[in-house]
Specification:
Blueprint lengths: L4 E4 L2 H4 L1 H5 L6 H19 L2 E5 L2 H12 L5 H9 E4 L10 H37 L5 H28 L7 H13 L2 E4 L2 H9 L4 E3 L2 H10 L6 H8 L1
Parallel strand pairs: 1-2, 1-4, 2-3, 4-5
């Protein structure tokens, strides 16, 4: 079998659909189950899985700590995921990618500005409607904060996030995943739409996080001795 390499981002271990397919009901159980698949891939299939260090590695460590997972999970991360810092000076990215990224970000920023303008106009019109009752400012203040400001801010955040954040590279770990995959000629494992979009632009192989455990199970079904049989022999 041709040796394969994969670069994980944080969602490769934390995506709910990835660990639910392993029959797990909590994040901690799910991370452990996926890392078990990584171990199978390493030992029986010659597949190597990498994680950018320290950026994505630190994100994974924070997930483990914040969700009160067993410290043994980090032991599995350190054992089965190869920590590597991308060579940010050697990896070459075509200038066309930068041009397209800047153009794409400009369009997303404009969408975000439109969402902001809509929220302002809605707030103004609703305040004018309330002021038409003839009440004093002190009397209208509570109603404006409760009925106008709070609801518009919630709506604005949802629309702004959809307009500006989804589908873009918005963090250093995202870029590190792509750079490391480019450096290693590896496939990217992620559930992040921004990473997926730009992995395709860079000509990188991409696999959704939820598909990785399934892939390993499929490979393992053709291994003459399954993991459980090998483990029994080792006891």
């Amino acid at each position: 079998m041709l040796r394969q390499r994969f670069v994980f981002d944080t969602t490769a271990l934390t995506d709910s659909q990835a660990w639910e397919s392993e029959g797990c009901s909590t994040l901690c159980e799910g991370m452990s189950a996926i890392l078990h698949r990584v171990a199978q891939a390493r030992l029986h299939l010659g597949i190597s899985c990498y994680v950018p260090y320290p950026s994505v590695y630190n994100e994974i460590r924070d997930f483990v700590r914040n969700n009160n997972c067993d410290i043994a999970i980090m032991g599995k991360v350190d054992t089965w995921l190869v920590k590597k810092t991308p060579d940010r000076y050697r990896v070459k990215i075509p200038s066309k990618i930068f041009y397209e990224y800047v153009d794409y970000m400009r369009s997303r920023i404009n969408k975000g500005m439109n969402v902001s303008e809509e929220a302002i106009w809605e707030a103004v019109s609703r305040c004018i409607s309330i002021s038409a009752t003839g009440e004093s400012l002190d009397q209208m203040k509570d109603e404006i904060e409760r009925e106008v400001v709070g609801s518009i801010i919630r709506k604005f955040r949802e629309k702004y996030r959809a307009a500006l954040r989804y589908g873009i590279l918005d963090s250093a770990p995202d870029i590190d995943v792509l750079l490391l995959a480019k450096d290693l000629d590896a496939a990217v494992v992620s559930q992040d739409l921004g990473i997926q979009r730009w992995a395709e632009q860079l000509g990188l192989r991409f696999m959704e996080a939820r598909a990785f455990p399934q892939m390993v199970r499929e490979y393992m079904s053709f291994v003459p001795l399954h993991t459980e049989e090998l483990e029994d022999r080792m006891v």
